[in-house]
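Budget justification aside, the reviewers requested a transparent look at the raw inputs and outputs of the sequence design task funded under Objective 1. We therefore reproduce one unedited record. The lines immediately below are the structure tokens for a 207-residue chain.
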């Protein structure tokens, strides 16, 4: 029987492994954020789905155009850490599949999260329908994908469900959820590993 990934992330928060994850993911996330900043040179609101200890939320909140930055995560210990580091921030411990923000946001970002869901298309459709403003952006990074062979064993290594798909398969899921201008690319990798797979799409603007 596969484990609940939330329990694993709670344990990682207790042992400080979240700090190592943040450091490992930072180069790819910074590349994703630069992509976002180029798209949005006007005020925007931001939500990090699976925010961990909140490090991405804090980075984005420091930008002059960010009017609101929210972090959500299913792991209680991660959210406790986020609130400890950023007492005035907006963090919620919740089941992503059943949560809706009080007010929709312009950008939903997620790093290393959506492939843990049994039905990734379902969570993406939920985000598109309930989280994102007209004309808004959904962008997700993942290191577990077809094209990164070192990641293929992760599901068995951790004994958790992980959806292993190609960039084209993720792009199709984004498109099926109602997003337009869907695309995918890989961030800059190195000799030991390919880059992070990034998938993005925009919700059509309603005039």
């Amino acid at each position: 029987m596969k484990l609940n990934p939330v329990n694993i992330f709670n344990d990682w928060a207790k042992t400080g492994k979240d700090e190592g994850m943040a450091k490992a993911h930072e180069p790819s996330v910074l590349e994703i954020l630069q992509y976002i900043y180029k798209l949005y040179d006007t005020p925007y609101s931001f939500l990090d789905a699976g925010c961990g200890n909140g490090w991405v939320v804090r980075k984005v909140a420091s930008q002059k155009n960010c009017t609101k930055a929210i972090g959500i995560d299913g792991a209680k210990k991660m959210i406790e850490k986020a609130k400890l580091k950023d007492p005035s921030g907006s963090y919620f411990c919740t089941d992503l599949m059943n949560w809706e923000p009080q007010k929709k946001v312009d950008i939903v970002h997620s790093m290393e999260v959506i492939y843990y869901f049994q039905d990734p298309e379902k969570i993406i459709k939920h985000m598109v329908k309930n989280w994102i403003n007209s004309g808004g952006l959904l962008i997700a990074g993942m290191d577990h994908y077809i094209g990164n062979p070192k990641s293929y064993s992760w599901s068995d290594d951790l004994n958790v469900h992980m959806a292993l798909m190609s960039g084209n398969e993720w792009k199709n899921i984004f498109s099926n959820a109602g997003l337009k201008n869907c695309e995918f690319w890989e961030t800059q990798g190195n000799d030991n590993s390919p880059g992070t797979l990034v998938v993005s799409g925009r919700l059509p603007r309603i005039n």
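The longest strand covers residues 132-142. The chain has a mean pLDDT of 94. Computational costs for records of this kind are itemized in the attached budget.
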